[in-house]
Every structure is written in C-alpha cells, then in structure tokens.
Amino acid sequence: MKRKNAKLSLRWKLISFLCAFFLLNSTALLAQVQVQGKVTDQKGEELIGVNVTVKGTTIGTVTDISGKFSLSVPTTDAELNFSYVGYESVQIMMAGKTHFDIVMKEDTKALGEVVVTALGIKRSEKS
Known about the structure:
Layout: H1 2-30, E1 33-41, E2 51-54, E3 60-62, E4 68-73, E5 79-83, E6 90-93, E7 99-104
Parallel strand pairs: 1-7
Antiparallel strand pairs: 1-4, 2-3, 2-5, 5-6
C-alpha cells in the first residue's frame, strides 16, 4: 500500500510541477506590450515598407500603405530600429512608451555610379 501511495505522490508532484511551469511561462507570454505608430519622411509623406525591428531579437514588421505599424514587444525597455532604403536608420528606446511617430531623413550619401551587366548574353559581330 505504501508503494502505491508513493507512486501517487510522485505523480501529483510531477503534475504540480508541470502546471506551475506552464502557468509561469504563459504569464511571460501575456506580458508582451503592443507598440504602434506611423513613419513619415521630412515632407510628411507616409513611407511604405519601412523595416521595424526590436534590437537583439527576431521580432519585426514593416509599415503598411499608410505608413503605420503595429508590433508585439516583450518589454517596454526595448530598442526599436527603423530602416528604409535611401533613408538614415533610426534607433528609438521605448522607455515605457507604446506609440511612436517617426520622421526619417533622406540619406545624403549617393552612389557615384551603378554599372549593370548582363551575364550569359553573347554579342554577335554585327551588333
């Protein structure tokens, strides 16, 4: 009889441990913060397709057709990175804020020249 009670006690300990483990992990997942905002250029025009990422994670999104974004972030102390081709990258510390209006500046560095080549195309002597 003692052996049966010992097995039941071990099962209850295991079940209790698993319940506590999943409960603690589920509260960590629920603790995420919803961040949203809008990205524009210096003229006030919405920027479509701006990359918005959380530094040090794989969490990210892109802005929609109206320049708006929405993102679930694990903590309010995260750093958001905004990057877009032709514009300077912007890094913002959240510091407890959940709404951001970002203005991106055009990158003044321009390419000097772009050379386009076609591979695999043979030139005939007449052309």
